[in-house]
Amino acid sequence: MSRAISDDDICDRLLVSVGRGDRAALGELFTREAGRMIAIARRIVRRRDLAEEVVQESFVAAWRAAPRFDPARGRARAWLTTIVRNRSLNLLRDGGRIDLATEDEMSEHRNRDDASSTAYERLDDQDALKQCLERLEPQRRRSVLLSYVVGYSHGEIAAELNVPVGTVKAWIRRSVVALQDCLS
Amino acid sequence: MSDETDRSARAGEYVLGLLEGRDAEAAEMEMRTDPVFRSQVEAFAARMNGLDMTATPEVVPSNMWQRISADIEGVSQDSPATAIPPHSSATKVSSRSPMRPAQWMAIAASLLVGVATGYLGGWLTISEPAPVVVVVLDTPENVPGAVFEAFSDNSVRIVPLKDFVVPEGKIMQVWTLYDKSVGPVSLGTMTSSDITKLGAKPFQAPGPEQLYEITLEPFPGSPTGKPTGPILVKGFATLPGQG
User: Fold this and answer.
1) Structure letter (DSSP) for residue B83
2) Phi, psi at residue B99, to the nearest 5°?
3) B65 contact A CB<8A
4) Does B12 touch chain A (CB under 8 A)?
C-alpha cells in the first residue's frame, strides 16, 4: 500500500513538472504509466493498434492540458486515466472503426465479461470500492463493471444480461448513488 | 428522486461514461458551473480508478515515445486553470426589462463566468478548442436556463439547459450588447432547444460586463433588428475577480 501511495506521489510531481513545460518529466511519466494505460484502453477499444493510438494521443493531450492539473483536486494517474478512458469511449461510440467481424462474437462477449469481473476480483479486499461493489446485487454490479471497465453502453449491457434497457438504466442510476453513499 | 439524488446519479453515470450527446454536454457544463457536481464527479472517479489500477501493464511499442515526442513538437500548452469565482449578486431580472442599454447594464443576474476555461483537466474531450468565455444565462426566475460559450474565432455556442417552448411562428434569437452606442446586436437564431453553434461575427471577442440574452421573436427573426419579444434567458460576462 505504501508503495502505491509513493508511486502516486511521484506521478503527481511529474505531472506538475510537465505542466511547467518539462518534457523529460512527460517521458518519465510515459515510462511509468504507458503500459497500464494501453491495457486500460484495450479493455475498452479491444484492438491493440487502436489502444496504442489512444494512448499516444492521450499523452499528447496530457502535455497540452498538464498546466491545468491541480494536485489538490486529484491524483495524476487518475487524471491520465480519465483522458485515456474518455478517448477510448469516444472512439468506441463514434463507431465504424472497430470491426469485430473477424472475431468470434460469442467468445468476444465472454472475454469482455471476464475482463470486467477480473478487474473487480483483483481489487484488494480491504479496498472500500470492493466492499461497496460487493453490497450490490450481482446483476447490478455486473452492469456497473461492464460500463466502467469495458465501456459497454446501456444497450450492450441490456443485451448481455438479457434484460430491458430501461431496467439497466434504473439499476445503474441506483447503483452509482448507492456506491457514492457507501464510499463517502 | 430528490434533486440531490438525481445529481449523484448523473455524476455517477458521467464517470461511468454512460452519458451521451446532450446529456454529456449538459454534464460538462455542470462541471464548469456547479462546484458540488464537480466535486462529486472527481471523488467518485478517484474511487473507481481502483478498477483501472488492476489492469496488467502491456508491452509498450519501442518507438511510441519517439512518436509522442515528435507529436508534441510545436504543440503549445494550455494556460493554467483560472479560478472561476461564483458571482451571486442575484438581482431579480424582469421578464420584460426595458431594452435600454443603461438599464441592461445595471441589472446583475446571478451567474458564473470563466475566461480561458481551463477548468476541467481530463474531463473534456480536450481535442476540442476550449471556449474563451462561458456565461450562464438565467431565466427570469433566476435559474440557469442556458450556457453561452464564445470561442477565440468569435463563433459562439448555446447549450440550453431546459426545453424552451417555441410557439409556431416564433424563433429564439440570441443577442449581445458589447457597445452601448451600437445597441444590442443579433448573433443569430435558434429554432429548437438543441445545442446550437452560431458562426463568427466580425466584432470583437466578448469583454467583461458584456450582456447576452435570448428572446422570443417572430419567425424568421426580429422585424426591427433589435430585441422585441420576452426574454427567455440573460446573463453578463464578468472577468474573474470582478463582481
Assistant:
1) P
2) -90, 25
3) yes
4) yes
Alpha carbons B133 and B98: distance in angstroms, whole number: 26
Show the domain range for B199: 86-236
One domain, residues B6 and B71: yes
B190 and B71 in one domain? no
Fold of the domain built from segment(s) A2-94: Rna Polymerase Sigma Factor; Chain: A (1.10.1740)
How many angstroms separate the CA of residue A120 from the nearest CA in chain B? 7
Same domain? For B61 and B158 the reply is no
CA B209 to chain centre: 16
pLDDT digits (tens, 9 = 90+) for A120-175: 999 999 999 999 999 999 999 999 999 999 999 999 999 999 999 999 999 999 99
Say yes or no: B102 contacts chain A, CB-CB below 8 A.
no
Residue B241 maps to a domain: no
Question: Structurally, what CATH architecture does the domain formed by A105-183 represent?
Answer: Orthogonal Bundle (1.10)
Model confidence over B152-162: pLDDT tens digits?
666 778 888 87
Does the CB of B62 have a partner CB in chain A at under 8 Å? no
Rounded mean pLDDT of chain B? 74
Helix (H) or strand (E) holding A89: helix A76-94
What number is the ipTM of this complex? 0.91
Nearest to A90 among B44, B80, B125 (CB): B125
Residue of A nearest to B116 (CA): A68
